[in-house]
């Protein structure tokens, strides 16, 4: 009897078999690969959330700029028809580009306007130190170059007269991140009495 007990204990104490070790390694590998996939998706989601947040900030900034104009100012008045600007195509005076440098934190706002048949680009550059841009604002006949580390946002805005009711204008701003995959877009609207 003691001998059978001894053999039974010896059989249990001999360790893992090769098949048990291989199964454990497969289970561990599947777990590690799954964890790597989840971490990769979290990184992508974090970047996209940052881009959408920045686009929302830029849309809000443009709406605040438009809201600062006096009621009769030509920049926010619809002179003919029921709309001014466009959300689907660039209309002179109703679009600009924002370049955000991840290298040094500088922000450049570039707008184009047509003067006697040629496009003139005006750039407002803001530094992280808060230094004001030079005056007069620099103008060029060519758009500024975009560095490889910059995020390039494109803003368009639309002004709709007497919408949703008479004597109220609706302002809509569409911000699109140009150099990311997938493309990030954000749209924001406000209304203001005339």
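Q: What amino acid sequence fits the structure above?
A:
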């Amino acid at each position: 009897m003691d001998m059978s007990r001894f053999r039974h204990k010896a059989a249990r104490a001999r360790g893992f078999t090769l098949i048990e070790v291989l199964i454990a390694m497969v289970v561990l590998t599947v777990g590690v690969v799954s964890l790597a996939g989840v971490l990769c998706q979290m990184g992508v989601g974090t970047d996209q959330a940052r881009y959408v947040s920045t686009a929302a900030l830029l849309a809000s900034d443009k709406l605040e700029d438009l809201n600062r104009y006096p009621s009769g100012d030509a920049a926010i008045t619809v002179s003919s028809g029921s709309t001014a600007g466009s959300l689907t195509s660039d209309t002179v005076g109703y679009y600009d580009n924002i370049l955000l440098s991840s290298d040094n934190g500088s922000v450049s706002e570039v707008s184009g306007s047509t003067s006697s048949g040629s496009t003139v680009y005006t750039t407002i550059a803001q530094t992280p130190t808060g230094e004001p841009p030079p005056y007069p604002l620099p103008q060029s006949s060519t758009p500024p170059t975009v560095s490889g580390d910059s995020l390039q946002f494109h803003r368009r805005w639309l002004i709709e007269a007497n919408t949703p009711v008479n004597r109220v204008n609706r302002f809509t701003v569409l911000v699109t991140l140009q150099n990311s995959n997938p493309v990030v877009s954000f749209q924001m609207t406000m209304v203001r009495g005339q």
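Q: And what stands out in the fold?
A: The chain has a mean pLDDT of 82.
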